[in-house]
Design goal:
Immunoglobulin-like, five-stranded antiparallel β-sheet, 1 helix, rod-shaped
Length: 323
């Protein structure tokens, strides 16, 4: 008896140690998550306006095997194939490798960046789960995107950033007494690829100041004045600016009107007032947009003519921008 008992105790201890060593790795490998993200489509972006917002949806499915599990699933998003290592803001490119800047967020106010455990801001989306035997959980998480405002120099065209391969990552971090609320750096082997895209449109805006010829008792000589037309067009966009003949024109003669009659005048493209500014081919002003405001000077002249009755004479000219 004194010989057998120690052997039995050693054997039982060995079985218990081996049993514990085998159980923990199996539990750590049991939890898994998969995900699929819809594409983030900004649609048409006007570079001359403020930011443009869009959303996408991540659908996830998590589950465990025989043993109950508590774990934290983390969903990381990197810079994308066209991102070039840019984290804040992120970057899309067009076919000529020109950048459009945007960002991805986890909240509708667009203040919390959706980041990655391995890139940029360490802010992946964390999902804490405790599941029973063969348990599962699924749901949707919204991705909030924004094209940053103030990019007036964007060229028109199609832009994208493809989040494929390692640019999206799902990791699982198991907890012994509950979800650890922290992310592992080890990939689960699953990802949720998607593409962010935007179509930058060609746009122009125009503004104009009034032209004031002042006052005169009689119209015995020339009275000159100028005004300014401001044109802002997308970078690289060719445009032409034309001027209508006015509300009170007689044929091609521009006229200001009041109760006392009319005052003839003309508008020109050059300071010498020899090149009429109209709408017909050859009489417009041509330009190429830079994304910034471009100012064009209109040169006006009231020539000598019979003086009508006293009054305030006005006319309205329509400025047209073709691009």
């Amino acid at each position: 008896m004194t010989i057998a008992m120690p052997r039995l105790l050693v054997l039982i201890a060995s079985v218990l140690v081996l049993g514990c060593a085998a159980a923990w790795p199996r539990a750590a490998e049991a939890a898994s998550c998969t995900g699929s993200m819809t594409n983030l489509v900004f649609g048409t972006v006007n570079p001359l306006s403020s930011q443009t917002d869009a959303t996408a949806t991540l659908h996830y499915q998590c589950g465990v095997g025989l043993l109950p599990e508590s774990f934290t699933a983390c969903f990381s998003i990197g810079d994308g194939l066209q991102g070039g290592g840019n984290a804040n803001p992120r970057r899309m490119l067009d076919g000529a490798a020109r950048p459009l800047w945007f960002q991805l967020y986890t909240d509708p106010a667009r203040t919390q960046i959706w980041g990655s455990s391995t890139f940029g801001s360490n802010t992946p989306v964390k999902l804490n789960l405790s599941l029973g035997s063969f348990g599962s959980s699924s749901g949707n998480i919204t991705l909030y995107g924004r094209v940053i405002g103030g990019q007036a120099t964007l060229a028109a065209g199609a832009y994208q950033d493809a989040f494929t391969g390692s640019h999206t990552l799902i990791t699982i971090n198991n907890g012994l007494f509950g979800p650890p609320n922290s992310c592992s750096l080890i990939s689960s082997g699953n990802s949720f690829p998607f593409t962010a895209s935007a179509q930058v449109s060609a746009n122009c805006t125009v503004s104009a100041s009034a032209m004031n010829f002042g006052s005169a008792g009689v119209l015995l000589g020339n009275a000159d004045a100028t005004s300014t037309i401001g044109v802002q067009c997308s970078n690289g966009v060719s445009y032409q600016v034309g001027l209508g003949d006015g509300t009170h024109a007689s044929g091609s003669t521009r006229r200001m009107a009041a109760a006392g009659g009319f005052v003839a005048y003309e508008l020109y493209r050059n300071s010498g007032r020899t090149q009429r500014w109209g709408n017909a081919a050859g009489s417009t002003v041509l330009g190429t947009g830079t994304g910034g405001m471009q100012n064009l000077t209109v040169y006006g002249r009231v020539g000598a003519q019979a003086t009508p009755a006293a009054g305030t004479y006005t006319d309205t000219i329509v400025v047209s921008v073709t691009y």
